[in-house]
Amino acid sequence: MGVVNDQVEHESPDVQGGDANASSADQPSADQPSSDQPSSDQQTAVQSRAQIADARRVVVKIGSSSLTQADGHLSLDALGALVGVLAERRRAGVEVVLVTSGAVAAALLPLGLTSRPRDVATQQAAASVGQGQLIARYTEAFAYHGIRVGQILLTAEDTIRRSRYRNAQRALERLLALGVVPIINENDAVTTDELRFGDNDRLAALVSHLVRADAMVLLTDVDGLYDAPPSRPGARRIAEVRSAADLAGIEVTGRGSAVGTGGMLTKLDSVRMATSSGIPVVLTSAPNVRQALAGEDTGTWFSPFGKRGSARAMWLAHAARAHGVLTLDDGAVRAVEGGKASLLAAGVTAVAGEFGAGEVVELHDGAGRVVARGVVSFGSSELPALLGRTTAELREKFGEGYDRTVVHRDDLVVVRRRPSKV
């Protein structure tokens, strides 16, 4: 069992091949989430649909398909209608954060494009041009209601690295305190594929966590979650989802629209991210946003079931792309699932995939089931020679530095936990 337990502070001998002492590398780095993030016992006061009307802070996400015309170009009417509703809530004292797609759609006309570009370079160029167009339209629309807006473009690193997390959080809090509506989009012009949200649904969940939102509203081109494709005769809207069991047998598609990147599967991923962190979600269509924010029976209500942890843990569990797999022995599996141990080389039995230090990997048990996900401290070319060796053996054979943890507990999130004893 190669793990480091965070409750052991003194020097102690190896335990089943693992070192029970936390080394100097076992301390949180400057890039770890800070201790002033929401603690795990914090949870939103909004626990029912009707309570959304009294929410203090709400994140609203709108997708490209809800902001575009039939020809794929930006619809100023749709944008104006959304802004009108959000302005009403802002004047009523609600702090509103808007996560918006639509930058690429806004660039189609200025760039003379007939459809969403397929190659990465043109997508990035379109995002760069379109973001200016999009924020200009939002600025004008909110100004009509006497409300100022501020633009924030985020990457995944901005929500998982300590310094960037705190900077983003501080900027958002100050904007809200000044009565400004923050308008957020992913910084598609510079984001790499390895560290991107992939769509603004996941971004909205992370932003909801970042600003400690009381609720999140996802606006799409369908008026809720259905038990079958909405176009199928007899499909019924699901008014409320209280647990994952309520989704059993539900048929959804992962395909997004011609101008967007996210389908219903990504929206359900976003819902899981938010609700597992204690944030309730309403999924509905853009024309129903007023009813959703008023707590009326529209769309699908997803009840929160978890408590707030760190944004880094949320990203690792739901949004990060794994580059490889580490297989653990039974002792390491038990310790990692306990949630308070770092992984040492002594607990790793096999390595698969190609990855570098600092990339995300999955931790599997001997049967190939995912136990956890985490950021690895060694590359795939280094790890094989270290497997099964205790910290003392690594230090003796390879020197200082090789005795560090393979995955630090601050960079690890458990996906599957042991059942609690009854």
TrEMBL record:
Recorded family membership: Belongs to the glutamate 5-kinase family.
Major subcellular site: cytoplasm
Binding-site positions, ATP: K61, T220, D221, T261, G262, G263, M264, L265, T266, K267
Entry EC number(s): 2.7.2.11
GO biological process: L-proline biosynthetic process
Gene that encodes it: proB
Residues of the PUA domain: 324-403
GO molecular function, one term: ATP binding
Name of the protein: Glutamate 5-kinase
CC terms in the record's Gene Ontology section: cytosol
Family matches, as InterPro entries: AceGlu_kinase-like_sf, Asp/Glu/Uridylate_kinase, G5K_ProB, Glu/AcGlu_kinase, Glu_5kinase, Glu_5kinase/COase_Synthase, PUA, PUA-like_sf
